[in-house]
Specification:
Length: 959
């Protein structure tokens, strides 16, 4: 199946309302009382289309307000030429809001900001939080917001279906190289609708040519004297307009609207309010459609299209033939196989050239397996395969609490089987017993797309998936680490095939919506069986592609074995001391109120501290902390952490604001949020580890992101106190690699003095300081060591003199001298970095110690910024990726040791270079010794690896 994805739709209400109003302008819809309902009717239809076909997991509708925005303040003529709002639209707006409230759909509005600013801010934050975001609007300006996981969704119009625009489409639409150039084009051409002046006489095509040559408006202005003729004159005469227009066209993505996924969920339709509103509007048909939703439509599964399957008047056997009596004897299966004359041709028919294929034009045989006899036969035949593909259908994203709806299997391209299971857990367990032997048969390989999800679901039912694993998502991740790895995308790219969308299982008007259990089994069979079938085919392709990038060994010996480790960790979970977090929350709340009061006292007034606009006005207009304060692209005062950090030593209010932000983040993001993520079934937190997100190979985690639990501040570290062992018989054991990336750098560069320092156990930062500052080791000061530590870690990331000067708050000239001295003392490091970059220029990729590739296509770019970024990636990726390889190998070895010895202790967390264990007291001496050994020896190198191991009553004490 397609694994559940967080899918957020953000609707631009005013754009959609205007669009709906004018769509019916020639034949308006008017009630018997004379009320024009065109805008509400069109908006409602559009909304239902999205809910039913796209099934977002989260949704929000943003509105403009009548209050002036920063754009009006910056340019009084902004939107001044717009015609007055049609009276019918003014009447429609409150009706649309009533509709949204009745459907429990969040309304997003904030004085001083337009809908696109609100949507831009939430889209960016949601994308960072792992959401797939769709901005529903016909407005072209939204192109500047599009990212890998943020798209424009142009609704269906005039018989044309909806259109989804991603990065590729926006770049093609505007004929640009980068998304951020959209606003440069808009700035030059202006916008008559919003009265943004632009450069007179410069239209879209001219703007595109100028940006193609000069890259940005700013760079164009700096080279304006190079432009001859009337065009050059126009630009020179309107430089201020060009800059202003770019600022006005730029969507603000830092609006003070905190992103909270909980606030953007659909909670269900209020039938009474819908009936009242739609009776008033005389929407009889729409009323039935909306009431049919009843529950949040986002959980409703799709309806399958008619399928070209062979028909039979009687019951079909497992292979689509008229059923013989199927027993559990192998002979019966053999006879069925022998009699299936169409099995082989189907393999050839499955590759249809020409147009893109889908289930309606591609031969296939998908079967429902819903009797004990058929289940036994299927289980038997799966058991005699070398490998098979399987997939699960469930009711939830949460693998711990998800209910199994069905299982699909495939072992031949074009043929697959779906086993439905009932809601009754005991009956489901009975069905799973037919398949337990084959799932736990280590001689039979298992294939899946994001197979960890399916393994966790089955584990919650007491079934362990064993045998050689093959995950198509992870295989593609090794082939194309910087791309996306969803099954639908892969099927399109590699098979030229459009899988059945989960949205299509709903059907059209009159079909009652519900969960997957409510959809007819025949329809689910087509959908689920196709998932298993397509995944099987993708696997066969990827297995042949992996050797071409030298990734087979990495796939088979690291990424696949790691799946079992992560399944164990995620299913075990971590115990949380909720009372400790409640106490911490109360303390933080008190500190927040106290800090807030002190900020107001320093400012001489109260204001919204969380509003960058209000904060900037207080700090820089009223208090005048800086003579020439910096501004953002939108003309707003910059109030970021970097600005406040520069001010904190001389202005108490800056320090207090930084404290306030830290307190607010700790409380909302961690202390108050973590208890809500505790599973009701297990009483523990079960994070999900992602193997296919970070291109470097590092693991990331979500729901919750435990990798981001703060460690740099005293307050932040306190949160780790809440992570506790299972019971009094256990303690927390933490094992952390010491300076792993520096040690890998030493090994890769072969620098003798650096290797010697590590192998002899010397303080590497003090040793570096002694060499760089040319003083005896005993004369190294704490300041010298601090600077050298920054250089040591910065070098790995290709730090520049400017970057170092910023981090150390020293002149750039001094930073340049430090880097120069560093490379003079460690010439092998500089030689290694040059070697890596030169090799990358030739190959356009770099590799880790285990052969993991990171592609750097911009390494030969003529754009200095892009090339510099690629060079830094080329230097860092092999080091950071090798560190990821090392800890993954260590995790596999430690997990195998724990399983072999049948220990009660469990690995429960992986955070960057640290592993955390719930360690049984009786096993701590053995566990401590083996964890240290297995981490240090995971991947032998000429530099000794070291670990720091701690034990305590909670994670903080252990760390």
């Amino acid at each position: 199946m397609n694994k559940p994805v967080h899918k957020l739709f953000l609707l631009d209400a005013m754009a959609l309302i205007y669009r709906a109003h004018f769509a019916f302008i020639k034949t308006p819809r008017v009630t018997s009382k004379g009320l024009n309902t065109s805008a509400v009717f069109g908006f409602t239809n559009t909304l239902l289309e999205v809910l039913q076909k796209e099934k977002p997991t989260h949704i929000g509708v943003a509105f403009d307000t009548s209050a002036p925005t920063f754009r009006h303040i910056q340019y009084e003529a902004y939107k001044a030429q717009r015609e007055a709002q049609p009276e019918d639209i003014a009447v429609a707006i409150p009706l649309v809001k009533r509709l949204l409230q009745a459907m429990c759909i969040p309304i997003l509005v904030l004085d001083g900001y337009e809908a696109d600013d609100i949507i831009g801010t939430i889209a960016r934050e949601a994308s960072l939080a792992g959401f797939e975001v769709f901005m529903m609007t016909p407005d072209k300006d939204y192109g500047q917001l599009v990212e890998e996981h943020v798209h424009i969704y142009k609704p269906a119009f005039m018989g044309k279906g909806p259109e989804v625009l991603g990065v590729k489409e926006i770049l093609e639409r505007w004929q640009i190289r980068r998304i951020d150039q959209v606003v440069d084009i808009l700035g030059l051409m202006g916008d008559a609708v919003d009265n943004i002046p632009g450069v007179p006489g410069v239209g879209e095509k001219t703007a595109q040519k100028l940006i193609a040559e000069y890259d940005t408006v700013e760079n164009l202005i700096s080279h304006v004297d190079d432009i001859k003729g009337k065009l050059g004159e126009k630009i020179r005469e309107n430089i201020d307009k060009a800059i202003l227009s770019k600022q006005l066209a730029t969507i603000d993505t830092k609006v003070p609207v905190p992103f909270d996924a909980e606030d953007l969920t659909v909670c269900g339709v209020n039938a009474d309010k819908i009936i009242e509103l739609f009776d008033e509007l005389e929407f009889r048909t729409l009323k039935q459609r909306v009431l049919a939703i009843n529950q949040p439509v986002i959980t409703t599964p799709p309806a399958a299209k008619p399928q070209p399957v062979r028909e039979s008047k009687g019951q079909l056997d497992l292979f689509g033939n008229p059923a013989a009596e199927l027993g559990s004897q192998p002979a019966a299966i053999t006879e069925i196989l022998a009699g299936d004359s169409n099995a082989e041709p189907l393999l050839e028919e499955f590759s249809i050239p020409g147009n893109k294929r889908d289930i309606s034009n591609t031969p296939h045989r998908y079967h429902t397996v819903d009797t004990p006899e058929l289940m036994k036969s299927l289980a038997y035949y799966l058991g005699i395969q070398e490998r098979f593909c399987f997939d699960t259908e469930t009711t939830s994203l949460d693998t711990i609490d998800a209910e199994l709806v069905g299982l699909s299997f495939s072992y031949l391209p074009g043929e697959a089987f779906y086993v439905p299971v009932p809601a009754d857990r005991e009956k489901t367990l009975e069905i799973l017993e037919y398949f337990r032997p084959v799932f736990e048969n280590e001689a039979v390989g298992k294939i899946g797309q994001n197979i960890k999800y399916d393994m966790l679901v089955l584990k919650s039912y007491g079934v362990d998936v064993k045998g050689k694993l093959s995950d198509t998502m992870l295989a593609h991740y090794l082939l194309e680490p910087d791309k996306r790895h969803g099954m639908d995308l892969l099927a399109n790219s590699y098979l030229h095939y459009d899988p059945v969308s989960i949205t299509s299982l709903i059907g059209k008007k009159g079909v009652k919506q519900g969960t997957m259990r409510d959809v007819a089994i025949a329809e689910i069979t087509q959908y689920a069986a196709e998932d298993a079938d397509i995944t099987l085919q993708l696997n066969d392709i990827f297995i042949k592609e992996l050797p071409k990038v030298n990734a087979t060994k990495l796939f088979e010996t690291v990424e696949m074995p790691l799946l079992n480790v992560l399944v164990s960790m995620e299913s075990t979970g971590v115990k949380l001391d909720i009372n400790a977090l409640k106490e911490m929350s109360a303390v933080l709340e008190g500190d927040l109120r106290q800090t807030e009061s002190e900020i107001y006292e320093s400012a001489g007034q109260s204001f919204n501290i969380s509003s960058p606009k209000q904060l900037g006005e207080v700090l820089f207009e009223k208090m005048k902390l800086i003579d020439k304060p910096k501004k953002t692209k939108t003309g707003q005062y910059a109030t970021g952490e970097d600005i406040l950090t520069e001010l904190e030593n001389n202005h108490v209010i800056a320090r207090k604001i930084l404290d306030y932000r830290e307190l607010q983040k700790l409380k909302s993001t961690y202390v108050d949020a973590l208890p809500l993520l505790v599973s009701r079934r297990t009483g523990r937190i079960h994070t999900s580890y992602n193997q296919a997100v970070a291109a470097t190979g590092r693991l990331s985690s979500t729901n919750p992101n435990l990798q981001n639990i703060p460690i740099r501040t005293v307050r932040g570290r306190e949160i780790r106190k809440a992570f506790v062992p299972d019971n009094e018989d256990f303690q927390i054991l933490s094992a952390d690699y010491s300076q792993i990336e520096l040690r890998i750098m030493a090994a890769f560069s072969g620098d003798e003095s650096m290797i010697e320092a590590f192998n002899q156990g010397r303080d590497i930062h003090a040793t570096t300081a002694s060499k760089v500052f040319n003083v005896p080791l005993e004369d190294v000061t704490s300041d010298m060591r601090r600077k050298s530590k920054t250089v040591n870690f910065g070098i790995i990331y290709g730090i520049s003199a400017f970057g170092l000067s910023q981090r150390l708050a020293i002149p750039r000239s001094e930073a340049s001298e430090i880097i120069k001295s560093y490379f003079e003392e460690f010439p092998s490091v500089k030689a290694y970095m040059d070697r890596v970059v030169n090799n990358a220029r030739e190959k356009e990729y770099v590799e880790t110690i285990l052969g993991r590739r990171r592609y750097v296509p911009d390494i030969n770019s003529r754009n200095q910024t892009n090339r510099g970024f690629a060079e830094r990636n080329a230097i860092n990726a092999p080091i950071q990726g090798s560190a990821a390889d090392m800890i993954k190998v260590a995790m596999i070895n430690i997990h195998d040791f724990i399983e072999k010895e049948k220990l009660k202790s469990r690995m429960i967390l992986q955070v960057h270079d640290e592993l955390v264990f719930d360690a049984h007291r009786d096993e701590i001496p053995l566990l401590k010794e083996k964890v240290d050994e297995l981490m240090r020896t995971a991947i032998p190198m000429q530099v000794k690896m070291e670990t720091g191991i701690g034990i305590g009553a909670n994670w903080l004490e252990a760390h």
